[in-house]
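Hi team,

As requested, here is the filled-out complex form for the NAP run. I kept the field names the same as last time so the parser does not choke. Let me know if anything looks off before we queue the next batch.

— J.
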Amino acid sequence: MNIGQALKEAGRVATGMARQVPVVGAVFDRNDRIDLNGKVVFVTGAARGIGAEIARQAIAKGACVALVGRTLGPLEKLAAELGDNAAAFKADVADYDALAEAAEATIERFGGIDVVVANAGIAPPPDTLLTIDPKEFERGIDIDLMGQWRTIRATLPSIVKRQGHVVVVSSIYAFFNGALNSPYAASKAAIEQLTRALRVELAHYGATAGVVYPGFIQTDMAEQTFAIDHIDEARKALPAMFTDPIPVEDIVRAIITGIERRSPRVAAPWWVLPMLQLRGVVTNLMDESMVHNAALSKAIERAESKKQHDRG
Ligand SMILES: NC(=O)c1ccc[n+]([C@@H]2O[C@H](COP(=O)([O-])OP(=O)(O)OC[C@H]3O[C@@H](n4cnc5c(N)ncnc54)[C@H](OP(=O)(O)O)[C@@H]3O)[C@@H](O)[C@H]2O)c1
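And here is what came back:
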């Protein structure tokens, strides 16, 4: 590489990094932004929560949306509410063939796939590595990690062909300590890695990929998790700023903007992005403060003894 090429490449890297700066980064936007009007968006876990709101906001932007999930009834109900630009397809993300069929059916119905949102996920039972049922641990990995991989792989040929964008819904648990939540945290960290690699692998096609890092969001998942006694107890041992769920509309507005800008990272609430940037320091501090947090240790101890008592 000569000096001219090296300078050009350094300029591209600097522009790419400048694009990540909140608000002012928009000045450096790529010239291949995605206008969702007329584009086709494939969303897994679209029946409820974040997935359903992505469908609503994408439709409002003029997109066609494939609503994909494991239960057809609620997906069809949502499709009827959203009109002719929405269609429901049944696919459990544990089943690669079903996802491939849903991708085929989407292409048949709408002509292709421009954006895939690998969103479907579950919250495995909040137990420790010592007490979690091994089958539940592995199911968590199968849905939250392997399900995302299957979704991406089944739709990738169309994304490549149409120079589209892949969105992978991870979590703050990609870098937060996953105590009482380890299959989930391990999956969310793994899919972050997978998406970073994918973004580089897609660059020569002009396609892109980005990771979403939601904090806690007002959906069934957060509500059901926080309803569990020892999780509520653990939650109260942490600053409320980090654990108060935000409205689903807020994270989805950020996701939609991220799609339009082909952002490699989307985060909400506001404190997630700075933490992400400082994660080397933040994760060390977090781990140490959690190890020495007496209320959290007590909650973990109680969770384990309850589990052992329930098992008899
Ligand atoms: N809520 C939060 O605080 C939060 C925070 C960070 C990240 N996230 C992530 O955001 C994503 C969406 O979560 P959410 O809060 O919207 O959860 P949610 O309200 O519980 O909705 C989850 C959706 O995923 C679907 N799903 C679950 N297992 C599936 C499977 N095997 N195959 C196909 N679809 C499946 C569910 O389908 P059914 O309706 O059939 O059950 C449901 O539509 C997840 O990846 C989650 O990890 C959520």
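Two things worth flagging: The chain has one domain: 26-229+241-279. DSSP finds 13 helices and seven strands in the chain.

Thanks,
J.
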